[in-house]
Here is the input.
Amino acid sequence: MKPFEMTSWKKIINRFETFKNKSILSYFDDPNRLNDFTFEFENIYFDFSKHRWDKKMLKLFSEFAREMNTRQAIEDMFSGQIINRTENRAVLHTALRQQDDQPVLVAEKNVIPDIRKTEVQIKNFTSKVISGQWKGISDKNITDVVNIGIGGSDLGPKMVVKALSNYSNHLNMHFLSNIDPFELDKLLNRINLETTLFVIVSKSFSTQETLSNAKKIQEIYLDKFGKPSIAKHFVTVSTHIEKAREFGINPENIFPMWDWVGGRYSLWSPAGISIPLAIGFENYQKLKTGAYTMDKHFRNEEFDKNLPVIDAFLTLLYNNLYGYETEAYIPYTDKLQYLPDFLQQLIMESNGKSVDLSGQTVGWQTGNIVWGNIGTNAQHSFFQLLHQGTRIIPVNFIAEKQNRFTKFKENHNILLANMIAQSEALMIGEHNDVAYKNFEGNRPSTIILLDEITPESLGSLLAYFEHKTFTEAWLWQINAFDQFGVELGKRLAKKILEDFNNLIRSHDKSTKALINRIIS
Ligand code: F6P
Here is the structure.
């Protein structure tokens, strides 16, 4: 299927030509503008009204999604079809949060019983650690937990643990991802080995950074406390149980993962085990319930009212028609500090592809560049470019209406006033005869306003972004679920590391000079 050869896409292009110069503000002449482009979803308010399109365009995009058989594509994902064809895998992060026991078959095997069994394993394990039943080598309670993992084995859990820190218990959570020894040194200075539990999270159990960090820490334990300490201070999550055993992890402390969960979609799997450790199993389940509610919406709602689908349409509108290449994510809450990092992996690792589902080079732009930082901090760094730069960058503002955990209500209001003001300023601009003081305006933004960041609402929000990513990929006809683009650099790094000892390989001149500079 060639998306941009579809009849409905041609209609989109024709209509685009007629309105591309229209101002966003003028769309508000239509009395139904707000009604048409704002949506309530389980205590989350989505405002898509400040965008450069209208209801007719939304209808045309919906027609396009139908012509592209998007409904069938969604069903194929939820029902466990092998949609990640390059890796011959199903894609079932949705099964991990399914609240009923409706069978989901992968190669004729129902995956739900295994998921339920693992949930019990996680519940028992996390409650033992939280309650103090789980003891360290010197019989002391666990006070600190370190998640050792990178990419999807770090970003999702780290982001959720911070976002829900108002729900957290006494355990101090740490995340060790990078191979830079600076982080490892710092961590080891902060924790007490006798009361720390390490969770090694690696789907492949072959990621250099994760295994090197884990190995170093394991050596320290062996040296200080001997072999029995490993079972008391290390657990792991992996699809490669054998490799984890070889590493010395007690089989009882190995949590399974499945090849039908992609790393960047894995916080719902045991890879997210830091989350129930930090906030308790019940809250973790609520996070999944929230995601499940969004899953049902995505699976069943008409496209012109389907939130992740509408957001994906906006990406295509801006990327493929207006030619805007990036989208910014600005959470106006420190709780979501790590959301932009998480979304970078989710969206860019999923959709940074240039080959379509039939193996041909795509003839259109795909994966948007995703970036951002928290407001108001971002206002004082890069918002200048958003308001007066030559590029137009659609912005996604995300905030919570109330923070019932703070007594500084006034500060929260200042935060929200700033967010709304930025969105308004981007759209309305301000005329000034002095050119450098002029604000052109007409710059689009979405506002996602959660009543409150709770496990449920966060779960819905994250599922929303996952499904937006999926829909974009489908409409571009690319595979959102492989990541071969990360492999070449990993292979070369291994060779270069060997060459640090003895430069035996031939390299280009620049690379060779750099290696020589390191080893000399
Ligand atoms: O290098 C990219 C990647 O494979 C991501 O897709 C993944 O989330 C991350 O590395 C970590 O992988 P693993 O969980 O297998 O250690």
Observations:
- The chain has three domains: 3-67+301-482, 98-282, 485-519.
- The two ends are 54 Å apart (CA to CA).
